[in-house]
Structure formats: structure tokens, C-alpha cells
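Kindly inspect this today.
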Amino acid sequence: MKNFIAVIFCLAFGLFVFAAGNGIEHTWFNQEKDGKILIYKEHGNYYGKIVWLKQPTENGKPRLDKNNPESELAKKPLLGTVVMKNFTQKNENEFVGGTIYDPKNGKTYSCKMTLKGNVVDVRGYIGIPAFGRTTVWTLAEN
């Protein structure tokens, strides 16, 4: 009987860990695999910040957010920059209503994310999603 209870506990715990690990709250490689973005939940919304860069320095100094149109932000390091803001969960796999900042051109776009197992489709757009571009991010952690 003790073994049966132990097996049930292990199965239940394993399912809990599996379910908890399949959400959007993870670290993801961008499509080019030159950066990692940590997606996290704060105050009921989802955000994403840069936590790793393949080339974190430029001329021996931290890479700056030099394309940011706000002069004060352009002087700050790119590492740690929040690039995704205010996403809400529409259903189990869709996250909508957020914005994504592209540090390569300094522009911010409306954005939606669709989780598909170990990848997430990140669609940035202006106006409506049909006028946008999708990049595929892959899970960076196990």
C-alpha cells in the first residue's frame, strides 16, 4: 500500500512539474540565436527582457541600446532591456495585446505570441496582424 501511494504521488508530482514547465514563462532564443529573452509574468501581464547576448560587448564596453529613439534609453546597456510588454493570455497558447521593441531598428510594434510546444511564434505588426512579420523563437532551457 505504501508503494502504491508513493507511485501515485510521484505520478501526480510529475504531471504538475510537466504542466508547469510547458507555459510561456521560460527563456527563449530569438530566431537568429544571437539573444535570449526571458518571458515572465508580472502584475497579471507577461513581459520579456534580454538576458543573454551572443555579443554582449562592443569595443570592450557593454552594447548599448543605441537605436532607441529616447536619448536617455539609448545610453543604457542592451542586456536587461525589457523588449516585450503587457501581454495578456487569451487562451492556453495565445498571448495578445502586447508590444515588442526591436533594438535593431529602435521601433516598437504591436505583438502577439502563439506557443507551440518548444517554440513560440512571435508576430510583430502595425495595425492588424495581417500586416506583420513572424519570427520563431526556440526554448533555450530544458
